[in-house]
Amino acid sequence: MKPSKSKIKIFFLGLFMLPLFLAVLFSLLKLWSPALLKFPNAIEIYADFFISLTDNSVLEAISSTARLVLISSLVSIILGILFSFLLNLNKWIWSIFEPTLDFLRSIPVTFFIPAFAVILGISSPNIIWILAAIPSSLLIIVNVLHGIKQQNLNRLHQYYLISGKKSKISAFIKVTFFEVLPYFIAGFKISLSYAIVIVTVLEYMQMGNETGLGTLVYNEMEQLNYKRVYSIIIIVGLIGYILNQLIGRISQKYGRF
Amino acid sequence: MGVILKNLTFQHTDSIHPIIENLNLEIKENETIALLGISGSGKSTLLNLISSFQKPDSGSIKLVNIDKSEVSYIRQSAMDMLFPWLTVKENIEFALKERNQLDSGAKERLVSLIKILGLTEKVNKKRYPTELSGGEKKRLSFACGLSYSPKLILLDEAFTGIDFSLKWELWSFLRAEIKRTKATAILVTHDFDEAIFLADRIVFFNSKKQIDSKEVNVNKTDIIDIEKSVSEPSFIKTKGETLKIYKEINEAL
Questions:
Q1: Mean pLDDT, range A36-54, rounded to an integer
Q2: Nearest 5 degrees, angle CA B175-CA B197-CA B132?
Q3: Is A178 near chain B, with CB under 8 Å?
């Protein structure tokens, strides 16, 4: 179904409002910040943003962060789906592991750093995506399990009747998978945002990585280069926005039911 | 015999009394019966048991000359029967594809089924079930449920919530299909006209077990026009008798 003209207009208005909103924010920060800090104005920030897109160190950082987000997302998809279906094998397994899952969900991922630092070493390049994959997987597990619980049992029974089959595997492939898909996509969308936040924060903490957008923000801040700091923040926001739009499109196509 | 139910008992886990208790019922091959009774009397539960959706606590269900794969269950909620991720055409072809029976003959039959049910435009435009109106969803659910020419058709208030013209259209269609495939059918309904028009026999249910069985004597083969059939003296007589028994049962409760 094609979007209406008014929806397209609102979409472009939203795109126009974003830089305007940021410009107001930057101007207010400049207004209230101590003169000593030499906060840049909005024009300087936008000029630097476009320059930064041609800067090799920024491009390298984008690629490094994107790689870590991608790895952690892929791992969380695999772990999320695998564990959800293992936990759903029967109600007893789910009941046994439910308290553990809820317990883990409440703990900020940064609290796991000491444990993983001991196992992998604080300078391990893998520590970031592993830590990012933990909450992302948990989010997918919770959503997929919810989807399985919400699935229409009448429809599942209908499959067995009209297909003339009894195989649970074929029922899973033909029915349950599609029933759960919207829940999986919703979980993945949130987990992706989590992954971006966690990866950049851990990079900022200079964990196991010498590059990445988080590391770059830290380094630029050390040098009081606020223009670049803001530019990188805009880049991180844009990456998140683009990924959200992408998942939104996938969700519209495959998860609209 | 088509379906034989012996001493059937079933109790829901959250209920203190069985909803079906020691029910005995025999449905002949090619026979259509209607189950009439107040809500909560166990009519839909009986269909769930026959279709193996639920298992009886005791008693037996025997399908004679009917394989379990030849059962169709058309429900009140069309979306319970449809796969929203498939297009209208894919939904209609789904059963036959799963059974590896989608040959050219079957395709031809499906084309005529689609035409009769007025779904050609939706098929051509590759619409999804969620893009259809309530009536169109209902038609599609009939197309899906009857696409594989089932030998036992279970209908659980399948005509509820649709306008009269579509209801009458679907009644005629169903009757023609039952006649063509020589199927046995069990329909749960609250509509006396529907029961009399479609069924050979009406079985009355109270909250515990089958209470009375009534033969419907309407010469169905001669009546194609529903408007004409409802004004037939035999139809009016049967409706009066049905109403009387129904009232007696409810007053006895």
A1: 86
A2: 60
A3: yes
